[in-house]
Amino acid sequence: MSTVCRDRESKVERQREKDQRNDIYLVTSCNEMELLSLPALNRMAICGGTHGNEMTGVYLVQEMARRQKELGDKAWPVPIVLVLSNPRAMKECRRYSETDLNRCFTSSILSTPISDSSPYEVRRAHELNALLGPKESKEAIDVLCDLHNTTSNMGVTIISYSPNEWISLHIYKYLKMKMTSVPVRLFMVNIPINEAYSLESVGKNGFSLEVGPQPHGVLRADIYNYMKEAIELAIEWVSLFNSGAVIEGGEVETHMFHKSIDYPRDPESNQMTAAIHPQLQDQDFCCLKPGDPMFLSFSGETVCYEEEDSLYPFFINECAYYEKGIAFHLARKTTLKIPSVKVQRD
Predict the structure, then answer these.
(1) Which of 121, 165, 200, 210 is flagged as catalytic?
(2) Succinylglutamate desuccinylase/Aspartoacylase catalytic domain: which residues (predicted)?
(3) Pair (46, 124) in one structural domain
(4) Does any domain span residue 152?
(5) For residue range 182-223, what is the model confidence (pLDDT) as tens digits?
(6) What are the pLDDT digits (tens) for 85-128?
(7) Residue 148, annotated ligand binder?
(8) Active-site annotation holds for 210
(9) Is residue 26 in some structural domain?
(10) What residues are paired with 212 via a beta bridge?
């Protein structure tokens, strides 16, 4: 039996699923759900070009900057700081210049003094932390969204660090309800914020928006439009929250990181000996069961998944992960309950 999962749901089917949900998004009472009052979200940052060859975020931030220059305060219902994170890598159309910027935002790195000999991206991380943070401080930006592309078939994926980060979880819930033309999923890294290594961790509330598939150094109109729609909806949710509406909680499906899988390698040369199996290619977030094909060796042999638990692969065959020794990540699918929220009034 083929393990290829039919993940491309039609727009009609997705619309029907949305219409059948009997929860009303904006409510006047919390029913049986917990209701939390959270501080207003007065400032939002949207960052692109953290990886200089992921083009959608670069062009979207540039277009938003053009609109902001033209319309001023009327451009968005909430003040937005627009940042092109890695200008040197963007100019070179490379992921990074000296080291991966999106691994430079741990508290340890940000608290270590820099010098002229520090890698460019480490120095840039300190600059961004000063602009948008400092990380874990009262002065940090209220919401930080970092824009990324992946070569993997991941649709629109929100990446968050904590299952208790209610703002990002609510934004994910809103996107999943509103976006009908592309799958929307949540990947939870689930590590302490001081160990969180990527740019979005600098904000009080932060998430990464990963959209694909798109080759690095390339701009696709459909991927651009997915990201644009997601950002507009995120801004819309922040505006709704700030308006004082009670926003209903409920259950959200998430994928919790389990572990990473490397390619099969020659024990002496450490060279790859196999590629992603055709039946696994492009099947991000589809269930991988024991006995399912994972790799196809260069001599034609199939390497199968042998663990006892069925798990969910993603970032399958991501181009940027070859240097990291990662063929794909594995996650456990689980359901989180999130409370209803409203803005805290003085």
Answers:
(1) 210
(2) 42-232
(3) yes
(4) yes
(5) 999 999 998 999 999 999 999 999 999 999 999 999 999 999
(6) 999 999 999 999 999 999 999 999 999 999 999 999 999 999 99
(7) yes
(8) yes
(9) no
(10) 155
